[in-house]
Amino acid sequence: MYAQMIKSTGKGVKSLDEMEPDERAFQERINAGGKIEPKDWMPDGYRKTLIRQIGQHAHSEIVGQLPEGNWITRAPTLERKAILLAKVQDEAGHGLYLYCAAETLGVSRDQLTRDLLSGKMKYSSIFNYPTLTWADMGAVGWLVDGAAIMNQVPLQRTSYGPYARAMVRICKEESFHQRQGFDIMMKMANGTEAQRKMAQDALNRFWYPSLMMFGPSDENSVHSAQSMAWKIKMNSNDELRQKFVDQTVPQAEYLGLTVPDEHLKWNEDRGSYEFSEPDWDEFFDVLQGNGPCSVDRMEARNKAWDEGRWVREGLLAHAEKKRARKMAAE
Amino acid sequence: MSDPLFEFLCRMGDNTLVLGHRVSEWCGVAPVLEEDIALANTALDLIGQTTLWLNLAGEVEGKGRDADALAFRRDVWDFRNVLLVEQPNGDFGQTMMRQFLFDVWHKGYLTALQDSKHDQIAAVAEKSLKEVTYHLERTMDTVIGLGDGTEESHNRMQKALDKLYPYVGELFVRDDVDDAMIAAGIAPDPAALRADFDAVLDAVLREATLTKPESDFAHKGGKSGQRHSEHLGHMLAQMQWLQRTYPDATW
Questions:
Q1: pTM for the whole thing?
Q2: d(CA A311, CA B37)
Q3: B37 belongs to a structural domain
Q4: Interface confidence (ipTM) of the complex
Q5: DSSP code of residue A142
Q6: Distance CA A238, CA A211 (A)
Q7: How confident is the model at residue A8, as a pLDDT?
Q8: Which domain holds residue B233?
Q9: Mutate which of B14, B17, B24 to disrupt the A interface (most A C-beta within 10 Å)?
Q10: Is the Cβ pair A318, B33 closer than 8 Å?
Q11: Which residues in B lie closer than 8 A to residue A85 (C-beta atoms)?
Q12: Do B40 and A88 touch (CB under 8 A)?
């Protein structure tokens, strides 16, 4: 899940009877499974919450290029290098569609970028963890993209049209990413002793941060209740986390790897796994900017933006000169 | 001299390998998102072309080496790329200028190579040319846009050109390997492609308001493998590290 702890109005969900006619019509349309399009009337809170959510998702795609970019120049074969490059390129593309979706809500990409770079807006906690071995490229695809898909597949049915449509395209690519991640894990887990050690180490380091991607339990959150009523959040965090664990544990077993949780146990009655919660103090530390790579990631983004300024200004100046010349000639 | 056909194929594959690697170093830190995507795309094309050239080189050599063995298990002196492509990225302007100079040559060379008597080479050239035509369109626009942009962008592009122009001449050097390829009807005479290259270069530089350096001095030694720059060794140290550290592993 690339959007975490998204605040909505904080006021609790209104009943249909409490709503003004516009808002009531809007909510009834959502309840009936209809889509909201950019020019339709929408409550201010819906617009603002969506901007936060889509913006955070877009920022996650952009910052998410960095931990994988860390291994492009060290990829072990030409094919692996090409696959990884294609994956990171897809992520930049996802960032682009999502910024476009956010722009339909009346916020510019430049504004969102400024908010990311100033630290005002967040990106997913997961990208503040380091990628230390080649097996991490497998673990990121398998676990991180796997967790993202859990959330993004239902979002294809989200109420906001441009977001839902962006998600359809993104999901297709994400499931390819997850498969290639699992493929790397298979190679590593069935490889030499050193490769198996890297694979286990990657699972050890990425297991709990992946569980954190869903965010803490939101059963009593007014923000989540509102987002669910608006259908911009489709499932509770715990529900998605459980689904992720139930899907992933058999895959780890298939790989011959051990999930780093001594309390992990199949619950026959429930038909699901019991598992340990991640360390939520660590999660909140990461959100506060104290993740292992938080400072590095923000520095890298800021440096890229600052060093690219002359390029953006140069190309803009040229486009203006061209337009002026064309007008003078006409 | 080892088999000239093998040498020739390594030259083609090493150019795209080394340049593709350099471009891939930009991942995630380009000036705008569209450039991140475009740079990754260029790198992907070049890595794809590398696989075709170096697999063919391995087949011709007949010692059981494939593209990966050639890319990841040779040392600096066995690389046959021109010095231009191993030069560091520098700023975005330098990366684009390097790419532009290479693209103009690459397009001209591949166009001629489509007529190769060697069917597989002609086929790789034809496939690559489609990609390279697009690369050149983009780098041409960027060089013009930044050359004729702000004062700062102009100065940076002029500096990039001044720095990289001395590496252009090597692209057109004709040597024993070329002689053998020309005689066999496999590849064109590189020296004969210079006039067309200059025509494109001059037209683009004029529009970009940039000035070609007066001296035609050319650094050499990459294509022959006799003397690479210091930069290549560092690149290989990074690129080949996993394969070298875990030689028994498959990935």
A1: 0.96
A2: 16
A3: yes
A4: 0.97
A5: I
A6: 10
A7: 87
A8: 4-214+226-244
A9: B24
A10: no
A11: 24, 27, 40, 43-44, 47
A12: yes
